């Protein structure tokens, strides 16, 4: 999609400033969206900061998935019993999510 095309283009032809990217995409599908995004002041330009933001977002997504799985296992245990592997996973998830909550994450 659009994001993949943008990343491929930037890999082949790195841009020094957002205006270069906007100029390359003028007249293409998604150009208006891209221009609005790149004109925002809070766009991350530092690679280390961007990596940290991405890592944080991935951790949050993983925690949400783990939370949903924990809820599913809790519902299953209320309806019946958990298999040994499920019980082990249940305990692992409680420890993991409890540890995150204690850290404020």
Keywords:
105 residues; single chain; mainly alpha; 77% helix; 5 helices; elongated
Model description:
- The chain is an all-alpha fold.
- It has 2 domains: 2-39, no CATH class; 47-103, no CATH class.
- 77% of the residues lie in helices and 0% in strands.
- It has 5 helices and no strands.
- The chain has helices at 2-12, 18-25, 31-39, 47-79, 84-103.
- α2 packs antiparallel against α3 (31-39) and α4 (47-79) packs across α5.
- The chain is elongated, with a radius of gyration of 21 Å.
- The two termini are 32 Å apart.
- The mean pLDDT is 83.
Largest sheet: none
Hey, roughly how much beta strand do the residues contain? under 5%
Order of helices and strands: HHHHH
How large, in whole angstroms, is the Cα Rg?
A: 21 Å
Low-confidence stretches: none
Mean pLDDT: 83
Integer count of domains: 2
End-to-end separation = 32 Å
Report helical residue fraction. Answer: over 70%
Quaternary structure classification = single chain
Extended strand count: 0
Number of helices: 5
Q: Outline, from the CA principal axes?
A: elongated
- Structure class: mainly alpha
């Amino acid at each position: 999609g659009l994001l993949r095309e943008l990343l491929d283009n930037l890999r082949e032809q790195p841009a020094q400033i957002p205006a270069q990217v906007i100029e390359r995409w003028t007249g293409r599908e998604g150009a208006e969206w891209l221009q609005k995004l790149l004109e925002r002041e809070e766009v991350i330009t530092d690679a280390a900061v961007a990596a940290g933001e991405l890592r944080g977002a991935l951790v949050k997504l993983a925690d949400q998935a783990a939370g949903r799985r924990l809820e599913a296992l809790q519902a299953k245990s209320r309806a019946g019993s958990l298999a040994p592997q499920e019980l082990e996973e249940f305990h692992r998830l409680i420890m993991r999510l409890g540890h995150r909550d204690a850290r404020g994450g």
